[in-house]
Amino acid sequence: MTRGSATARRRSDRLDDLFHALADPTRRRVLARLTLGPAAVTELARPFQMSLPAVSKHLQILERAGLVSRTVDGRVHRLRLTGEPLRQVEVWLDPFRSYWEDTFTRVDEDLAARPSRRLRAPARRRRS
Amino acid sequence: MTRGSATARRRSDRLDDLFHALADPTRRRVLARLTLGPAAVTELARPFQMSLPAVSKHLQILERAGLVSRTVDGRVHRLRLTGEPLRQVEVWLDPFRSYWEDTFTRVDEDLAARPSRRLRAPARRRRS
DNA sequence: CCAACATTAAACCAAATGGTTAAGTATGTA
DNA sequence: TACATACTTAACCATTTGGTTTAATGTTGG
Predict the structure, then answer these.
(1) How many domains does chain A contain in total?
(2) B64 CA – D2 C1', rounded, Å
(3) DSSP letter assigned to residue A54
(4) pLDDT value, residue A86
(5) Cβ distance A82 to A66 under 8 Å?
(6) Which of A98, B46, B65, B87 could cross-link to B17 by cystine, CB 3.0-4.6 Å?
(7) The domain that contains B63 carries what CATH number?
């Protein structure tokens, strides 16, 4: 018994869907387009070379992540940006914010704490 | 010739790697752990049930995305958070910020511009 | 009623993902 | 020298992903 995948992948986590949805250039371009206002599927598909079903799937992924919402109006599906999930990204990002504001102090602390032979790096980055 | 995948997937875009790296709970937990300071591979792997090679691969993905950097010190690989790429996420996020601050005005504008029969929804959302 | 239109669903495929185990490769240590 | 430690690589596997084409579903308009 090889039993390759043991844990069976949860995939239920909200952020998983969210970040996964953002990890594709097509989907990011769609989101960018939607900042200009809502649009129908065909309209969203126009800039891309791929088939309509392909775009349709991308939109489903964005929808599942909550990034866009859909209003069916006759045969036209009108998509609009939701934004709320992007705020969630922002929220997730927040605890890390100190890391691109002052990384150096923490790194320096660590270097001081464990002065290894090999860490004799030639002090590359100036602190201004 | 069925030629299933025509475009061959670029995957070279920086943001693709970045968001993909963030789209996994294990990797996000590793990042969270690293905000407390650098750590070795074994140490990072401890909270997880998966095998060491699995963690090693996750770390490679984080590294490829630039989210962590590695200092090999003897046989110990010390990982630290880099932060800079997370700032890139923030930068990418910026143009959307207005969407979780005031979505309503834009949506209303659009509804005004295209007054469809079927959109006679019973004014669900109050604006306060 | 019938044809064009807007869109999704189904079936398929290659490649990537996330895991596994087993086998390296260095480095420390007795 | 030999053994344990800290890792990575390699080979493998099931599932997911991102695309395709063809078919189906439901409007809209003549």
Answers:
(1) 2
(2) 37
(3) H
(4) 93
(5) yes
(6) B65
(7) 1.10.10.10
Q: A91 and A76: one domain?
A: no
CA distance A123 to A115: 14
Distance from CA of A13 to the nearest CA of B (A): 8
C-beta separation of A40 from A77 below 8 A: yes
Interface residue A32 vs chain B (CB under 8 A): yes
Residue B73 counted as domain residue: yes
A20, B25: Cβ pair inside 8 Å? no
A31 inside domain: yes
Contact A100 B81 (CB under 8 A): no
Taking alpha carbons only, the member of B60, B48, B99 closest to residue A7 is: B48
Judge if A26 and A54 occupy the same domain. Answer: yes
The parent domain of residue A19 ranges over 14-82
Find the residue closest to D6 using CA and C1' atoms. Answer: B75
On whether any CB of chain A is under 8 Å from the CB of B71, the answer is yes
How many Å apart are CA B11 and CA B103, to the nearest integer?
Answer: 32
The structure tokens listed for A90 are 């922002």
Q: Which of B5, B100, B101, B118 has the highest number of chain A CBs within 10 A, making it the mutation to test binding with A? A: B100
Q: How confident is the model at residue A123 (pLDDT cuts 50, 70, 90)?
A: very low
